[in-house]
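Supplementary notes for students who missed Thursday's class. We covered one full example, reproduced here. Read the sequence, then the structure, then the short commentary at the end.
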Amino acid sequence: MSLVVMGVSGSGKSTVGAEVAERAGATFIDGDDLHPASNVAKMHAGIPLTDEDRMPWLRAVGETIAKHSGERVVMACSALKRAYRDVIREHAGPVLFAELEGSRELLAQRMGARHDHFMPLTLLDSQLATLEPLQPDEDGVVVDIALTPDEIAGRILSRWLATP
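Structure (token representation):
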């Protein structure tokens, strides 16, 4: 089963996802790399993406995971809404979601500290408003980002590797 590390911008998806992949001997893929240039331009300009903007990207995320069937894959992807996660599952098959959650203050602090990312701090509130946490019937684990990346990766690995 593949793993999608999800959450809003600044939650540590890429950092944690890469750590989990390294520790599990898995392939790491950053979903941000799958965005079309038009999506990146909108986000860079501080314009929130619409569902219409996201759908081709979410299909690409699911299809990319599917291309790696038979191997362990960790994908970093915001996957903010249940409907978005459904699209990923539709194309990828069974997926375990690891939701990284934290306070707005910590997220804003992290976003303010990075200077090489296209997502501006101004879009954080839009992402938080869009976020639909994992539901009890979704296969996943929720981890607090106040923990260290090593601790977060350990909790995710424990859950992921215990999944049949």
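Commentary. The longest helix spans residues 51-67. The mean pLDDT is 90. If anything here is unclear, bring it to office hours.
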